[in-house]
Design a protein that fits this description.
The protein is an alpha+beta fold. It has helices at 2-7, 17-34, 48-55, 57-72, 98-113, 141-157; strands at residues 38-45, 80-85, 88-94, 118-119, 122-123, 128-134, 163-164. It is globular.
Length: 165
């Protein structure tokens, strides 16, 4: 139970950032042995502060849990899905090239946008922006994360509710 508490985000039931660091380390060790390609998706909720400020933090928590459910329903059991922090999520897709990762990120983005988030009968329009990157040989995990983060920032700058690589 202690291990689960230490590695799981209580709100979403996803891996937390500490668990991510262990799991990505294992994936890197596997890559060194097999050279199996993998890709990552970093996404966050657009204008999440507005949701919290307008509808309250409890509603914000429900939105976070719903987005986690949507993403979890679309990734494979072998993939790593974690709550990166706040309203950010991170997905590691083993044996996955960039094109497939982009397709999955778009699928999650569209499902979130089409979601049925409500507060006291009022629909709350929630969208996400995503950055996607494929691991490149000789790259560090920090460099890979930075590239995904830069793509996410570009998606936000371009108007939000977008997926960039």
């Amino acid at each position: 139970q202690l291990e689960t508490l230490a590695t799981t985000d209580n709100l979403t039931g996803l891996h937390n950032r500490q668990a991510f660091e262990v799991l990505i380390g294992q994936l890197m060790q596997n890559y060194m042995r097999t050279a199996e390609i993998f890709s990552v998706i970093m996404f966050d909720i657009d204008d999440f502060k507005y949701v919290n400020d307008t509808f309250g933090h409890l509603t914000g928590d429900l939105v976070l849990a719903e987005i986690a459910r949507i993403a979890k329903a679309r990734v494979r059991g072998s993939d790593i899905l974690c709550r990166w922090g706040g309203e950010e999520f991170f997905v590691v897709l083993s044996d996955c090239v960039l094109a497939h990762a982009l397709s999955l990120a778009e699928e999650i983005r569209i499902a979130v946008s089409d979601g049925k988030n409500e507060y006291k009968g009022q629909k709350i329009r929630v969208t996400i922006s995503a950055g996607v990157a494929e691991f490149m040989p000789e790259e560090t995990i920090d460099q890979l994360i930075s590239r995904a983060d830069q793509a996410l920032y570009a998606a936000k700058k371009a108007g939000k509710n977008r997926t960039f690589s």
